[in-house]
Write a structure and sequence with these properties.
The chain is 77% helix and 0% strand. It is mostly helical.
Length: 110
Amino acid sequence: MNSYVALGFAIVAEVIATTALKASDSFTRLLPSMLAVACYAVSFYLLTITLRTVPTGIAYAIWSGLGIVLITLISFVVFQQTIDLPGLLGMGLIIAGVAVINVFSRSAGH
């Protein structure tokens, strides 16, 4: 499996896990709790595949940056949580940072 494909699936699994964690209500609801634990395990496994060829700092920057943006969007849609202008600007900077890493960093392993 391509390292960046594994990273993409790791991000998706982590976002599902975090969404389920919120829905678990502090691990008091069984199904969301089980989904959170399972998806975190899948996410970390896929991250280990990524780390075979992608430098740790680069992989983690992409994983955490895109995860932050995706979970914020899902929280807005699913849990009706709001985000203010500084939050939107911050996420824009995160996206810009991930883009800079992927386009310009020689250590990104392209």
